[in-house]
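--- STAGE predict ---
source: upstream dedup step, 1 unique chain passed
mode: sequence only
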Amino acid sequence: MKQKHKIQLTTLTPVCIGTGSKLSPYADYVIDEQHKKIYYVNQELVKSRLEENMKLIDEYVAGVTSGMDNNRSLFRLENFLKNRLKIDIRKEHRLQMDCEAKGSKELYTIVKNGGLQPYIPGSSLKGAIKTALLYDWLTNNAEGKKIIEELLRSPKGEKGNKAIEKMLNQFNPGLSDTSLIEVNQMRCIDTKRLHIKKGNMVIPQAWESIVKNTLSTLTYSERQYEQFKPLTWAECCRVINQYSKAGNQCEWDILSDIAGDKMRDDIYDKLYDFHEAMNNDINEADEHTAFLKLGSGKGYYLNSVGLAMFNADKSENKTAFLRFLKQVGFGKVFKKETRRMEDYDLDPYDFPITRVIDVNKLQPIGWIKLKLEK
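--- STAGE serialize ---
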């Protein structure tokens, strides 16, 4: 009989489990920057009002299209709704939430039940934990260690990659979706990619998110998989924390090495303090508590076997790991002069070169705590 456990999940930073969809500021939502609110357009109401005055359809379509094609469009959705369709977005909306995002950007959406209440899918948790289990096998199992050594010698080795894929498919931790989360525990945030050497922030994105300190629950079922014994919750926590600590330590070390470079002091201090505190939390966790990163902004080392390879390469310059990165496609840039993708200076000690951060809090996103409810 499968043993089931009730687990409490706490978000430690904003968490964004994306749907792959985006909303347009020219058709789908309006931001009130003064009052820090976002209002989602009631599309059924818009459709109804347009049907009442068919002459406005062309005007509406032209405005939405021009906005999508040109960020400097003069079309303002809120003005059109109020003045042409007589819709007060603050009173007649589909959804409303707090908002820290600014400007006219596409809004990346998160998983929600019926498009309203957010939750964290069991599939997202399962994928993150499977990666942790794979890391444990590659790091502590004799066969797994051999695979890593083979990949360091030959990054595109077919045998090694097939063995990793086979092992990953064997892991099958049983996790349910979390309980539904109240709408007031959502917030729209601005994220950017921080270039850790230049210190600037690029690629702005607006995201729906589940806010920090949100509580929900899920069920964990101990399952038998392949030749392995059922994975107890305590063993699952050990594996997760081992992986999260290694990835977090890697980030912490990279930040330490670039101290004094071009990064703003406030950004550096916030990130350094965050990773230091996370390291302490993982070290002090009891056997039934685990810390995990998932969703958007997860980053390279907590989303691949690269962490096992980085740690396995004991050479001073990480020569084998660097060769692996280049052979799998990292470290290339398009050169206009030659019209070709060419290698540039790729340093394994500051890879990857960008990190996704919450612009307002100057911290990573995606961290959660999982704790057994007794």
